[in-house]
Every structure is written in C-alpha cells, then in structure tokens.
Write a structure and sequence with these properties.
Chain lengths: 550, 195
C-alpha cells in the first residue's frame, strides 16, 4: 500500500519531519484523501532493531543528531563566543533523527496542559523583559484533540484521580501502568504532606492496544526505542496508518535544506539531499514544517530568498526566537529496601499540586514532581553525589542503585527573545549547510522556581522515609530535549509566525506545527500538546485545501 | 525525557568537569563505526589478550582501575575486565586518542617514579590510594575513572562487564522482561484510591 511519488509530482502536502507532529499530520491528511510525502532525515528502524545498549544510545548518538556530521554551536548570550559541539560528543539541542523522531526515544510522559497554560498572561499579567503571552487557542478548543491523542495515539492513565485535573471529555483508553516502588513511595510521602499524587499518564500501552503489544516492563524507555512497539511512538502508530491510506510516502534519508517559493511568493516544493547526498527537488502544493523547535526555524532561515530576505515566514523577525527548554531539578532518595527502579517505565506516580504559579512566592513558575528511575547503570555510575568519586565508598554508593529513586521536578521556562536558534555564521555541517547556533540562558525565575520545587521533592522523599537524600545544585541547562517556542502561534503577524491554524502569516500555503508553535512552555511534558495541536491543525489544513485556499 | 537531558548534562558537564569525560566525548565518533562491526565487538567479550597496552602499562592501568572500583566481598573493576574494555576501546573506537592516553600514562608513571621506588602496580594499597588521591583532578585519572566505570556497566560485548559482573554488583538485571511486583514497596500495594 506504500505509495511512492515522483519528484516532479506536486503532492498536496509535503511534511518535513516524521516525529510527534509530522506523524499525526501525515496520517490525518492522507486519510482525508490528500497526497502526502513525509521527508525524514533519518533511517527507519523496526522494534527488533532497538537494543539495550546504553553506550550506543546515551553516549554515542545511536539514533540522535550527531555532532560528527551535524554539529551545533552554543553560547549563553549574544555577547559570548559560540562554542561548537565536539565531534561525536553532544549537541545542545538533542533529538532523535529517525522515523518517528523523538517520539521514538521519549520517556512518554503524557500530561495535558491545564487551561491556565493558555491564558496565563491574562491571569498573572505580563512579566517584564519576557515575551510571556496568551495562546491564540484555549484548553476547551484543544480538549477534543487531547482526547484524540489519548485514544488514537494510545495513552494509559486514570481519569478523575486528582483534584486539579482539567476537564476531559473521555476517560483514558487504557488503565495506568502498574505502580512501581518509587510510585508507592512518592504516593506515601506526598499524602503525608497533604498533596494529591495520582497515576502518571503515559503514552505506553498498559494492555494490548490497536494491534500493538502491551509493555513488557524491560526498563529501557528513556532514550531508547521500544523493542515491542508498546511505546506509542508515531513510528508504531500514526506512520503505518498513514501509509495504509495508500496516499502517503515516507521518504527516509531525505534532508530538506531549503523550501522553494515561486514568483507569487507561494511555496512550490523543497530542495533536499537524498541518502546519497544528491541534491533533489520535490514539488508540492503546500509544505508543512514539523522538524522540531530547533530544525524548523533553521530551515525557515535557510530558505531566505529575494521575496523573503530575512528567511521564510519571518517578516516579524521572530523566527527562531523565544526558545524554551523546560527547567527541572530533582532529588535522589535511598531507601531501606529494594525498589528496582530499573524495571518498567520511568514514572508511575505524579504530583501536580504545584502546577499553578503563585505570585506570593515572589517569582513565576509552576511544575510537577514525578517518581522515576532516573539513569541506567552507566550514567548512574558516572554521576552520583558530590564528594567521593572513586574507591570503596564509591563502590558502596553504586550498590545503592536498586534502593534509589529520583523525585523529578519538571518546570516552566519563560519565553525570552534573547534565547534563540539562529544560523551560525561560520560553521557548516557535513552537507555544507549552516548549522544551528543556540543562544540560551534561563530567566532568573526559571531557576528560582526549579530550586523551590526541588525543596518540595526533598520533603516528599523525606516524608516517604528515605534513609538518605542527595541532589545536585540546580543548574542552567546547556543541553535540552524540549525544543519549544521558536515559531510561536499568535493572532498578530507582528508578534508571531503562524496563526491559530498553524498557517504562516506570510505564506498561505506554508504550515508549521511542532514544539516551535508553543507560546509558553507548559510544565515540562510537551509532546501530548504538540500532538493535540497537530490533530487540530490537520482538520483546518484539510478544510483550507478543500476550499482551494492553499 | 527532560531528565534525560539533565542526567546527560550532569554526566557530560557535571561529572565531566572531569576533563577526562570531555576527552572521551571528543572521541565518541568512532564508536558509531565500531557498532557497524558489532560481530567483531561480540568477539571482544571475555578477552584475555591485550592489543593496546604492553604488559607493564597494563599492570598499572589495571591497578588504577582496581583502586577506582576495588575488590571487596564482591568483584571489582579488575575481575570485571575493565582493563580489557579500556584496552579494546583504545585499540578500536578510541584509537584516535591512543597517543594522548599513552602520554598521560607516561606522565603518571614518571611522576610516580620520581617519588617512589618501583612501579605503581607494585606499590602497596595505601601508597596507591594516596598517590591517586593526589592526582585525582588530572585529565588522565578522570579518563581512566570514566572508562573504568563505563567498562563496568556497558554490554559485555565491549570487553568489560564480564559475565555481567558490573550489573550484579549494583543489582541490575538486563532480563528484557519483567512483571510486577518490581520491588519491595509495591509488593502489597492495595491499589490506587483517589483521596
């Protein structure tokens, strides 16, 4: 059923990126009757290709963007000199480059945003020096699409389990994952403190679902691909369903480096390198950029031409700006008995009592705390508490692995125009194209709230009876996997890139939908909202196309 | 994944204020190639011969590794074959860093010889420990530390973690499939009850 199109055949929609958003859009648009090509830089892997090889996936960019061929540069502020990621080392904006994108290696925490996330500027007022704004959509508008994510992507959880749960039109389609010891302990500690822990929602099949196997609790979710297809990656859900429509081609090894426009200043297709690094052109009637919050702005900036001298869709000058990471800070607790957190999924219990910002604290911020395994053995051994780093006592520390859990705090990042993705003026990738220059430094409130929430994590572990608690100081991030805000949605073309339907203000047949669309950061788990936005965007794109408005 | 980023950052930057980790990071690229030769890598499991180190050097590196994760009632880095992981790494995917490692090792040995009689490997446990403490901030030591730990916990096919010895040390099982209860505290969990 898999379709193959010729380069000269102008497809209805060409989607750049096969990840969390691109997969959804491919499935929705092809099912709606449109001819669709998905361009994916990476290769396609099968469940049996994924391995429990921590060295490969965590240290050697087994499926992630590799500085050896795709370096990035990083600086904290525009006044600093941007430093290039070391060959084979680590990129500051880290994502999975494979069919399914980062939905292949994500942890699968699927929190809905709360209504306040979309209207927080109105609720709290502006924050000086930031681009803090309301979204052009509300929670109520997005709710049906969150329900679609739950049911069509596949999310496990328990509805009605915590008092500040946002309205939902449907329950979860699958029961929550079985609780782990960390979840029991988080629940115990949090309840003692009067908090409201509840089963963590996860995009992982807790029971067989829509032809996919249930999780076998192997413990290799975070950073790894699922070897049984239980993780609800678009690789296992949306992409095959898109192909089954008979109208969708997923073209792997295809690196789109420029979006072309015609004399009417409309998009006409994309220039891309194929797997053999040959330059090709694929014609399209409309282009949908879903390349993630790092690569999407880069592609628009690389597509500058005489019509669009600042880059495509960039009359506002805001493409690439307002990059947000999500802060975070946690604490490790060591308990008397074994938890064996290396088994099963990361998080099974979650506390969202600190979701809302509280002006009384004196700084902005909100977040959640979950109970989780944290690192696999190699990373466990290379991190560890400050102080002794080797010898007998370090060996004893290593042995506390099965008795340890992480209470992980996930928090807000404020949008700042100074945090950005731009094109590095000097460094080129292995294809000769300019690389991402990341400029990022947290707003002071991001750090203050992360530190505040870390204290709450410590209190929970203490109330749960931890024998020992340790934590690292809250640190600024120079690596992130949450790539948000760089092509924000909005009603005003002067202060946003796309409208409320994800159509570029400047180019009517160009759409952008992924983490770059975010106006604010949410509390740390963006993928579910990326996918809800994608389901909603697909409906509107189909509507526009049917009316001949694309 | 957010903690993936956090932990990864801690590893590469926090722990990696250890210069050694930075140095290793600079040499990761070749590992991708190493993976394409997975079959050869599998042959690395249970290595008993050395490709990179001469005997005297091997004894010193083995002694350092044995100080980093010593043998007590449970096996340490020595028994797990960390030396063989390091040797194999420097011979294969870390080969481009081989000269730098040798230079570091030579400096380590010369500095030791200037103040002690005999080789590091032949010194007493107390002497070895004191000497390593005095140089623990050096790039060379941090590199050996990182490689020792990675060698303890990476898949045995990379040459270390013999028979899963590292995993047994910390109570990790790569069984591939588990069922609840997973640990002590979820054994008698009565089920979730909303408050």
């Amino acid at each position: 059923m898999t379709r193959a199109y010729r380069d000269s055949e102008a497809v209805d929609f060409l989607i750049v990126g096969s990840g969390a958003a691109g997969g959804v859009l491919a499935r929705e648009l092809s099912r709606a009757g449109f001819a669709v090509i998905v361009m994916e830089q990476g290769a396609r892997l099968r469940p049996q290709d994924f391995e429990h090889d921590e060295l490969k996936y965590w240290l050697a960019n087994g499926i992630t963007n590799d500085p050896n061929v795709s370096p990035q540069t990083y600086r904290k502020t525009a006044a600093d000199v941007a430093k290039k990621s070391e060959p084979g080392g680590i990129n500051p904006l880290w994502y999975a480059r494979t069919v399914g994108g980062s939905s292949v290696h994500f942890t699968a925490n699927f929190w809905r945003f709360h209504p306040v996330d979309f209207t927080e500027r109105s609720v709290l007022g502006g924050i000086a020096g930031t681009s803090f704004e309301d979204w052009p959509v509300t929670y109520e508008e997005l709710e049906p699409y969150y329900a679609k994510v739950d049911w069509e992507i596949g999310v496990s959880g328990l509805a009605g389990a915590h008092p500040n749960e946002p309205h939902r039109s449907k329950p979860y389609p699958m029961p929550p994952m079985p609780v782990k010891s960390s979840g029991v302990l988080l629940e115990r500690g949090a309840r003692k403190l009067g908090l409201h822990p509840f089963p963590a929602p996860l995009a992982i099949a807790s029971v067989p679902y829509r032809g996919r196997a249930a999780c076998i609790h192997c413990g290799f979710c975070m950073g790894f691909g699922c070897e049984v297809g239980a993780k609800s990656s678009t690789l296992f859900t949306m992409i095959p369903e898109a192909e089954a429509s008979g109208r969708c081609e997923v073209r792997t090894g295809s690196y789109v480096f420029r979006i072309a426009t015609n004399t009417r200043a409309r998009v006409s297709g994309v220039h891309y390198f194929d797997a053999d690094k040959r330059e090709r052109f694929q014609a399209a009637k409309a282009v949908v950029v879903c390349a993630n919050g790092a690569e999407t702005p880069r592609l628009l900036l690389m597509s500058a031409n005489t019509h669009f001298p600042q880059g495509l869709a960039n009359s506002s000058g805001l493409v690439g700006k307002n990059l947000m990471f999500n802060q975070g800070a946690g604490a490790f607790g060591v308990f008397e008995h074994e938890l064996n957190e290396y088994k099963s999924v990361q998080a099974t219990r979650l506390v969202l009592d600190f979701y809302d910002a509280d002006p009384k604290r004196g700084f902005y911020g909100g977040g959640g705390i979950d109970a989780r395994i944290g690192p696999n053995p190699i990373v466990w051994s290379l991190t560890g508490p400050q102080g002794v780093r080797w010898g007998k006592s370090y060996k004893d520390h290593l042995r506390s692995f099965p008795r340890t859990m992480l209470a992980g705090g996930h928090t807000t990042s404020l949008p700042l125009a100074s945090n950005s993705v731009t094109l590095d003026p000097e460094v080129k990738d292995a294809w000769g194209m300019p690389v991402i220059r990341c400029t990022h430094k947290e707003h002071p409130d991001d750090m203050k709230f992360a530190a505040w929430l870390q204290e709450r994590a410590v209190e929970i572990l203490d109330a749960a009876g931890a024998q020992k608690i340790w934590r690292d100081p809250v640190a600024e991030y120079d690596v992130s996997v949450h790539l948000l805000g760089t092509c924000r949605m909005g009603n005003d073309p002067k202060s946003s890139i796309v409208d409320r339907f994800h159509r570029a203000h400047d180019v009517p047949n160009l759409f952008i939908c992924d983490g770059s669309s975010f106006v604010t950061s949410g509390r740390g788990q963006p993928t579910m909202t990326i996918q809800a936005l994608a389901f909603r965007a697909a409906e509107h794109m189909a509507r526009f196309a049917r009316r001949g408005e694309v | 994944m957010e903690n993936a980023a956090g932990t990864r950052r801690d590893f590469l930057c926090g722990a990696g204020s250890a210069l050694g980790v930075t140095w290793i990071a600079a040499h990761w690229p070749a590992i991708a190639a190493a993976h394409t030769h997975a079959a050869a890598a599998v042959a690395g499991a249970g290595l008993t011969t050395l490709a990179f180190f001469a005997d005297a050097d091997a004894r010193d590196v083995d002694a350092i590794a044995a100080q980093i994760i010593p043998t007590d009632d449970a096996p340490g880095a020595r028994e797990a074959g960390a030396l063989y992981f390091i040797d194999r790494s420097l011979h294969t995917w870390l080969a481009s860093g081989g000269d730098r490692f040798r230079t570091g090792l030579r400096e380590f040995q010369n500095h030791f010889a200037a103040t002690h009689a005999g080789a590091f490997a032949a010194a007493t446990d107390t002497t070895q420990h004191a000497y390593l403490t005095s140089i623990e901030e050096s790039e060379f030591f941090q590199t050996v530390r990182a490689l020792t730990l990675i060698g303890l916990f990476a898949l045995p096919q990379y040459g270390g973690n013999r028979d899963g010895m590292g995993w047994r040390l910390i109570g990790f099982e790569d069984r591939g499939k588990f069922a609840p209860p997973f640990g002590y505290y979820d054994r008698d969990y009565p089920g979730f009850k909303p408050p």
